[in-house]
Give the backbone structure.
Amino acid sequence: MEQTMIVPRFWSESVVEGRVKGRAVRIRRFGWSNDSEQAATAHAASRAEEALLRLQQGERVARREIKQSYGGGDGLPIREQIVDERDDVVITRNSYGARCLNTPDVLFVDMDFDASNSLVANVFGAASVIASISVLFALQFSPTAWFMALLLLPMGFLFAARFRAKKRAADSALPRLRAMCQRWLDQDPKRRLRLYRTPAGLRAVVMHQTFPPDSPAVRECFQGLGADPVYQRMCELQQCFRARVTAKPWRMGFTMRFRPRPGVWPIAATAMPIREQWVTAYEQQAREFAACHFLEELGSGHADFKVQRVVAWHDELCGALSGRPLA
């Protein structure tokens, strides 16, 4: 069950107590199920009892599991709210509120570089000017005020220049990333890739076939395209591939804090009105942005029918053909 479940519908946490070398211990474990709360509770109890037994047998065992969206290191299934489904593809809301597409076999790869939004740089530069003027007036143009103002201004503009330099470096990295894709394609004429521009680099979708996430072919693809190591490990542990399909809140200037915190699912019923209020405001603003822009398809291979269906939904959700600003 744990190997094939991508996003469980039900979660529970169980606590067991016992004694190890004469000392009282308490073990907490999560359980999950696609069937019912009762099944999730039974699974949690079983995992907790197993962990206690291992501890009593002398193994080093964590007393509790961290509450997070997905455990890149411990292999817990993705713990996010399911907001939509088509066949075996699941759309979830992640820990900061964006929607993500999760698929068991359509290979998505994000190739990132250190890109920064020039808007951030401009805002920081403007803020430094305002702060400098405010200091001058607040301290009545004293020598100390002039010193602080002259210190703030160059700091702000140097910071802004650094951000703009990173943006230029990011743009120059695109040909390099595309060349990596082409080298991978040249190794097999059956291969085909669909490329997108993201705020932080490129996104590739392997179009010619589906893959089990833990297959050697996937590892070879990740290596060839320079995929993020954390994402690689997540794919293998969670038995799925992921792609964010709506904007990151801070990239589109959305300042309302995601509530309640932490953003891990499930949340208490009493907190649902607060969460729904945030989601409504976020989704309204997110409609003005795209998560990625379609660039091109490369390779001479034929596109797999299932991959095409998933990609069509991905493009619709992302606004990949909309021309809206990236975020």
In short: Strands lie at 10-20, 23-33, 81-86, 89-93, 99-103, 108-112, 193-198, 201-206, 241-244, 293-298. The first helix runs from residue 37 to 56.
